Amino acid sequence: MRSKYVAGNWKMNMDKEGAQALAKGLVESLKGLNAKFMIAPPFVYLDSVYQIIKGSNIILGAQDMAATENGAHTGAVSGAMLKDIGVSTVILGHSERRYEFYENDTLINRKIHEALKSGLDVVLCIGELSSHRIVGVTERICEIQIRDGLAGITDEQLSHISIAYEPVWAIGTGKTATPQEAQDVHASVRSVISRIYGPKAAEEIKILYGGSMNASNAEELLAQPDIDGGLIGGASLKTDTFTPICKFASR
Ligand code: PEP
Questions:
Q1: How does pLDDT run across 66-117, given as a tens digit for each residue?
Q2: What spacing in Å lies between the alpha carbon of 72 and ligand 1's midpoint?
Q3: Domain 5-249, second-level architecture
Q4: How far is the CA of 232 from the centre of ligand 1 (A)?
Q5: CA torsion angle 129 95 30 42 (round to 10)
Q6: What is the C-alpha to C-alpha distance for residues 88 and 242, in angstroms, rounded to an integer?
Q7: Which atom of ligand 1 is nearest to the CA of 212?
Q8: pLDDT digits (tens, 9 = 90+) for 5-37
C-alpha cells in the first residue's frame, strides 16, 4: 500500500520573512500527521527554510536545478549545491519550466540523471495542454514525457522518482481535472511504468496530481486509487490552505 505524498511548490513567491513564517506555521500544523510532506521554496530561501524544518516531518525540495555538475554556467544551481544545504528532492519538468523556459524532454532527462547522481530524489512533472486533451492525445503526450524523461533510468533509480501528473490547463487556473479524469490518466501513467519497469515498480511508484488542488477538491481526488498525493501551487502558500490537504492525505 502506497503512503501519500503532498508537496508544496512555492514558485517565485514570498520574501524571506514570509517564507520563514510559513515554514514555522507548517512545522506546527503538520506535526503528527502521517504522510510524506515536502515544500519547495525559491532557491534563495532554501537555506533559511531548512533551518526551520530540519528535524520535522517536512522535507525540503527545490523547484529546478542545473543539468550539469559544476563550472561556467552563469546563474545555474547544481544538485550538489542543493544537497549541501539540506535539499533532498527536486521538482523537474514543471510545465512552467517547459513552456516559459523552453525546457524539453532531453534537457529534463539530463537534469534527472544529474539529480540522482547528486543524491537527490526527483518529482518528474508531466501533463498535457488543453489542445492535447481536446484532440484526445493526453495519454500519448504523458507517455512520451515519461519515456523520454526517464530514458536510461534504471530500476533502482526509479525508486527515487515520483511522477506528478499536472494537466497544464489546470495549473493556477482554478480548473481541476475531475477525480475520474485524473484517475484515468494516473492509471495510464502507472501502466506505462509497468510496461517499462514491470508491475512491481508500477505498484510502488507514487503518482501525484497537480492542478488547482485545494481544500475543497483534495479529499475526492486523493480518494482515487491511483492518486498518491498532490503537487500544490497556489494552495501551498498559506498554512490554512495547505494544511487541510495534508490532513486528507494522512487519513
Ligand atoms: C503547480 O504549479 O504545480 C500547481 C499545481 O499549481 P496550482 O496548484 O496553483 O494549480
A1: 999 999 999 999 999 999 999 999 999 999 999 999 999 999 999 999 999 9
A2: 32
A3: Alpha-Beta Barrel (3.20)
A4: 5
A5: -150
A6: 20
A7: 10
A8: 999 999 999 999 999 999 999 999 999 999 999
